[in-house]
Amino acid sequence: MKYFLLLFTLVMLAISANCQLDKKYWLFGGSGNFFSYNDDFTTTGQPTVSAKLTEINLSANVGYFIFDKFAVGLRPGMKSLKSRGLNTASAGHKEIALYIGPFARY
Known about the structure:
Number of helices: 1
Shape: elongated
Low-confidence stretches: none
Radius of gyration: 23 Å
Largest sheet: 4 strands, antiparallel
Order of helices and strands: HEEEE
Number of strands: 4
């Protein structure tokens, strides 16, 4: 029974994934990641330095199938970076970047 259920699920996923590749369909998707780093640096005769880095990336994609299995579209995104203690000359750094670019998928 488990084998049948697994096979049925895989077949249904394959059929539904194949149906969305015809022309005149829209493609929507996205991705994101999160990265965090914390560390304490100790040097003999020097005070302990704490470092922290946090990065967040988010992107989406919106496209249109102009031919069967060929889509073109735009991929907007956002990147946020915040650091503290990585450079002794500065107290911290914060950066936010927005971007957009084309993509093609076959």
